[in-house]
Amino acid sequence: MPIKYLCKVYDLPESSYYYHKGQEKSKNREGLLSLKKEIRRIYELRNGCYGYRRITMELNKTKGVHYNPKKIHRLCKELGLQSTIRRKKHKKYEPGQISENLLAQNFYSEKPCKKLVTDITETRVDNVKYYICAVLDLFNREILGYSIGKSANTELVTKALSESLSKNKRIKKIIVHSDQGKQFTSFIFKKLITDNGHLPSNSRKGNCLDNAVMENFFGHFKSELIYNKKITSEEMFYEDVKNYMFFYNNVRIQNKTKMSPVEVRQNFYKLKKVSNLLGA
Questions:
Q1: Angle 165-170-173 from CA coordinates, rounded to 5°
Q2: Which is it for the CA torsion 255, 257, 259, 265, positive or negative?
Q3: Bridge partners (DSSP) listed for residue 146
Q4: What HEC string does 159-170 produce?
Q5: Alpha-carbon distance 131 to 11, whole Å?
Q6: CA torsion through residues 205, 207, 213, 215, sign
Q7: pLDDT at 111 over 60
Q8: Phi first, then psi: what are they for 245, rounded to 5°?
Q9: Helix (H, G, I), strand (E, B), or coil: what is residue 137?
Q10: Of 129 and 86, the one with more pLDDT
Q11: Structural domains in the chain plus CATH codes
Q12: Which of 180, 187, 231, 183 is nearest to 205 (CA)?
């Protein structure tokens, strides 16, 4: 309803209405100016460390009035006030070169050290985090090399692979398969593979089935050692891992072959030797 009709109903001059309305606007302006001064005072008092959220909390606390944070945010913007916040530093990760998936979930290998798979697992000992990288031969499921560290870095994976390759220097074009972790796609790790005449291979992104055999090994490792024994020190942990790797390779019988991994390998070379003698 228009103002002039309301004024007639209440027998008031329109000028009185606009006068009081102007007074109200003036009071609002004065209130905003006063609030802005208080905002600036708090901002300067806290050396610019307070953003609009903390300024709102301090205003509510000292004035006993509940201010809307959105309003304080708007006024801070009008005043050009911004907290000197500690911004999070995000490390920009540049992904390494992803290799073709040469394995393609074909985990069968007819000869020793022709297809190797590797991965990293994490565990805790006495509330300290450790990482283990292992390299497994798909021919007999033997662990050819492993390394332990407190950081899942490139050094961890290159150490495990170097140990594995050093045992089979005469063999070339070994497929070395891993996931797309930054350690395994790093220039250093790839160079270690190619400089020795071997072939790098990577799983598809986010597909753990492409490296299922390695996942299976770490499952056994954790259930049979980590979860089955109370390890109380770093020295004990290193010794227990060493003993388990020996047990897994030399003693632990596999369901499929009814032999340990080392026995499978030894049996392969015995049969090959016999075959060569017969052929001669």
A1: 70
A2: negative
A3: 134
A4: HHHHHHHHCCCC
A5: 86
A6: positive
A7: yes
A8: -60, -40
A9: strand
A10: 129
A11: 3-79 (no CATH), 115-270 (3.30.420.10)
A12: 180
- Split at pLDDT 50, 70, 90, the class of 8 is low
27 burial level (CB within 10 Å; 0-12, 13-18, 19+): exposed
Find tokens 């309301």 and name the residue: 6
Beta bridge partners of 175: 115, 199
Give the number of other Cβ atoms within 10 Å of residue 123's Cβ.
19
CA-to-CA separations, 136 to 24, 30, 185, 228, in angstroms, rounded:
81, 77, 18, 22
pLDDT tens string 60-99: 888 788 889 998 999 888 888 887 665 555 555 455 689 9
Asked if 267 and 259 touch (Cβ cutoff 8 Å), the reply is: yes
pLDDT value at residue 21: 57
Asked if 108 and 138 touch (Cβ cutoff 8 Å), the reply is yes
Written as six digits, the tokens of 21 are 């309305």
Query: Where is pLDDT greater, at 154 or 47?
Result: 154
Beta bridge partners of 133: 120, 147
Question: Tokens at residue 45, please?
Answer: 């008092």
CB 142 within 8 A of CB 136: yes
Measured distance between the N- and C-terminal CA atoms of the chain, rounded to whole angstroms? 115
> What is the mean predicted confidence (pLDDT) over 26-49?
82
- In this structure, are residues 85 and 51 in contact, taking their beta carbons and an 8 Å threshold? yes
Amino acid at 159: K
In this prediction, residues 29-56 reach a mean pLDDT of 86
**Which CA distances in Å does 17 have to 1, 2, 7, 13, 178?**
14, 12, 8, 7, 80
